[in-house]
Amino acid sequence: MQLLVSVANSTEARHASEGGADLIDAKDPTAGALGAVSLVTLRHIHTTVAGRRAVTAALGDAEDEDSVERAACDYGSVGVEFVKIGFAGTTDHSRVERLIEAAVRGIRSTRLQRCGVVAVAYADTGGATSVEPSALTDIAARAGATGVLLDTADKDGPALLRLFSTRALESWVSKAHAVGLLVALAGKLSAEDFSLICETGTDIVGVRGAACKHGRSSAVSAARVRALRLQLPQLTHK
User: Fold this and answer.
1) Which residues are catalytic?
2) pTM surpassing 0.85?
3) Which domains does the chain have, with CATH numbers?
4) Which pLDDT tens digit goes with each residue over 66-82?
5) Could you say which of 15, 122, 151, 171 is the most buried, measured as most Cβ atoms within 10 Å of its Cβ?
């Protein structure tokens, strides 16, 4: 299980890298669950990491095919491992599939073979204001995505493990793996949650608040990231 830490700028990226994060995720925490940083900031983050860690990037919630295709191309061209897109306000399965396909087209236009698209489902919308997690795995696989992420949209609301049982998460992860997708879990997770998250079989665990000095709106701390990272080998090799 790899550790993904979301960072807002190059200073936080340096701290996350020093702390041992496997993936440095560029995201603006003041702009929602998937707030995108500027392209300039993403380039600074990528330069700071300088190949020592993989960089990923949030693109926000997709609104239309043209804009998501352009964004995927622009952000993917920086050299990130994958871009993440959500679907707040979109529950129609066919529309979600078209939006993912548009992001995939944008990535392919960069001609960077390593970059992929990760489609995001929200655990706290109940399928009322975003595509249901149970449906997203098949949709993402058909559309050519690399992976899926289950996160929470409301960062002031309940955490992922308050919304989904470990057994339910394990089932979701297994279903995604069965159709060839990489899987990530996030949503107000802490170090104390890692043992349960590890049981689900997920490939990636994502954090922001747990890596910060005083909650997700404060700065990422290398010491906090290091403490989180030290948990993972123990869990993975039990």
Assistant:
1) 27, 84
2) yes
3) 2-236 (3.20.20.70)
4) 999 999 999 999 999 99
5) 122
